[in-house]
Amino acid sequence: MEVKKKMSNVTTKTSSNVFYKARHAASSHNEQLSSREGAADIMAIDRGRLYRIENGIVNPYPEEIRLMADLYNAPELENYYCTHMCPLGYGIPKIDVENLDRISLKALSAFRELDQTGNFLLDITEDGMIDDNEKPILEEIIATLEELEQVAQSLKLWVKKNL
């Protein structure tokens, strides 16, 4: 049985839903988003459909994700959808909304490793072959590049959300 919170018609399940949370946060800047009806009207989608999305009954369509991300100023919804709901996106790194200072520190750390990574990559590939001894080093190189990719995506997300 769903436990009702003190807010009107908001169950515990709904209040933990990422799409509800994004709309609720956006309602502090746009009063019309304080109700599902208002948000659904702006996005021109069925109110019942928005209810089912916010209750986790149905997955939103990619077009609806774009609408919500833009309307709620929540570009992180696009990453959430791709990493949690889209069957093609399960390999995409999950990006969290972080403060700029935290992203900067992660970037500096990744940049520090980049010089060494480049040297290792040159050493491995100079003969045009990758032997068994070089495979673990290549895996470390891939991990470093993925870390850098995640930092870049975090920075892009921060810029979209804040500028």
**What composes the largest sheet?**
none
Which segments are poorly predicted (pLDDT under 50) over 5 or more consecutive residues? Answer: 1-7
Question: How much helix, percentage-wise, in residues?
Answer: 55-70%
- SSE order in H/E notation? HHHHHHHH
Question: Whole-number radius of gyration?
Answer: 21 Å
The general outline is elongated
Notable characteristics:
mainly alpha; disordered N terminus
What is the structure about, briefly put?
The protein is mainly α and 163 residues long. The chain has helices spanning 12-15, 18-26, 36-43, 47-54, 62-71, 76-84, 100-125, 135-162. Residues 1-7 have low confidence and may be disordered.
Q: Can you put this structure into words, describing what you see?
A:
With 163 residues, the protein is mainly α. 63% of the residues lie in helices and 0% in strands. It has eight helices and no strands. α5 (62-71) runs antiparallel to α6 (76-84) and α7 (100-125) packs antiparallel against α8. The chain starts with 11 loop residues before the first helix and ends with a helix. Residues 1-7 have low confidence and may be disordered.
